[in-house]
Write a structure and sequence with these properties.
This protein is an alpha/beta fold. It has 5 helices and 11 strands, in the order βββββαββαββαβαβα.
């Protein structure tokens, strides 16, 4: 396993609780849209075995051509040891990246794409949208639906409706409106549905989509292939 040590070169406050850390891109470090990585703090591998409390699974919110690795995360006032350390890091501090992989690349199959996310999960979809804006081939249109009860909606400069680009963006702050809209979107029986959020959020969305007739192969999750059956084997009640 290769560990890439790199430095923070910029920190942006996306909202009162959400920050994006921009990292120098190490030589030979590559990724594609929809990638996640293991993001580790200095000292995580100082002992006989890695300290898992100093490592988190994070999405990369930038595209490779930006030549900067963006890690967007929510840090609440009451947070874990990892987030507390991360909150106090500054430009120039070192962090590590390893085991980078994409489970949710943009499928270009001449279909409509629906991006369903909760809160900071939107960071996973940011590079997919940017990639689509740069090259829209074989994607009919994209619709993004994000629920965030904090009402501090993220990336509104990118996630804004652009009819000329066949892109629509929608933010809601409550579950009732969110799931009503998911049901409406699921009327497209040929669409591709990407879902990013907590495991509970994934299960709820899959149940709603499957009840509306969406097939498992139309649902994309940011999970390793061996984890997918656990979520997509949802049985419809008779």
């Amino acid at each position: 396993m290769q560990i890439y040590w790199t430095k923070i070169n910029k920190i942006i406050d996306e909202s009162p609780e959400v920050k994006t850390y921009f990292l120098d891109c190490p030589e030979d470090f590559t990724w594609e849209e929809g990638s996640h990585t293991h993001f580790a703090l200095e000292g995580f591998n100082a002992g006989d075995k890695p300290n898992k409390n100093m490592v988190r699974h994070m999405s990369i919110s930038t595209l490779p051509q930006s030549n900067s690795i963006g890690i967007t995360t929510r840090i609440r006032e009451q947070c874990s040891e990892f987030k507390a350390i991360l909150r106090n890091l500054e430009i120039g501090n070192q962090v590590a990246l390893f085991k980078t992989h994409s489970n949710v690349p943009l499928r270009r199959e001449d279909k409509n794409v629906y991006l369903l996310s909760s809160g900071v999960g939107l960071a996973t979809f940011r590079p997919l949208v940017l990639d689509y804006f740069e090259r829209a081939e074989n994607v009919n249109q994209i619709h993004s639906l994000n629920i965030d009860s904090s009402k501090e909606f993220l990336f509104t400069n990118i996630f804004k409706s652009a009819p000329d680009k066949n892109f629509t963006s929608q933010y809601v702050d409550n579950r009732k409106d969110y799931y009503e809209e998911v049901i409406n979107l699921a009327a497209d029986k040929d669409g591709l549905f990407y879902v990013v959020g907590s495991d509970e959020f994934l299960v709820q969305n899959i149940e709603v989509l499957r009840e509306q007739g969406v097939k498992p192969e139309q649902i994309m999750l940011d999970k390793h292939e061996q984890q997918l059956p656990k979520f997509l084997s949802f049985e419809l009640s008779i």
